[in-house]
Write a structure and sequence with these properties.
The protein has helices at about 15-25, 40-50, 65-80, 105-130, 145, 150-170, 190-195, 195-205, 215-225, and strands at about 5-10, 30-35, 55-60, 85-90, 135-140, 175-185, 235-240. It is of the alpha/beta class.
Amino acid sequence: MLLKGKTALVTGAGRGIGRAIALCFARNGADVAVSDVDAVGVESTAEEIRQMGQRAIAITCNVTDSKACQEMVDRVVAEFSRLDILVNNAGIRRDKLVMGMADHDWDVVMDVNLKGAFYCTRAALRPMGKQRFGRIISMASVVGLMGNKGQANYAASKAGLIALTKSVAKEMASRGITANAIAPGFVQTEMTETLPDEYKEALLKQIPVGRMGTPDEIAACALFLASDGSSYVTGHVLQVDGGMVM
């Protein structure tokens, strides 16, 4: 029970990696607020947590709305009395080559993946600062480290998220707040299921362990960064990619 007595907020928790992280935290003793634009998915995650005997609230929130992010954090603190862990997981893709990328394709990815993480982080820092304790974990990507053809918007948003993480880490270390990022490689989720088969086959050849990762493997790393065992780790980017980028 590494997170016993802790309260976490996980965005993008209606499915995939966010759901796996929320359930992992609950199994390890945390009460969890789960957020997503998918009201049905996020309520399903919350109900599964309640069945474990942990408290959970489901919040439908669009992280591109600054006011909604602040209200979400306020609700978590009002219901749970504190906020110890924030996981910025909400994210989208709009893949196109740069020459054919519309303004909206760029803007919407940056708004959700980067601006949304900024809004949630900013809102969470006030209660964490008062507690003089906090763990902020943001889901980046190996694409944010190496770039990728057809994903300039996604790569830029994830690289920006890494820079945001390092800046927050430097600003908040004296307050007992750590900020770290996880950079998954290719993980079996609904998002990667939409990739063409030939593209996935080419990717597997670049991964030394020879397979895609699972959401539970990412969740296990998030658990470490959320736990007291990571108290001396901040400003770090943890690559979880089967050796793809080394």
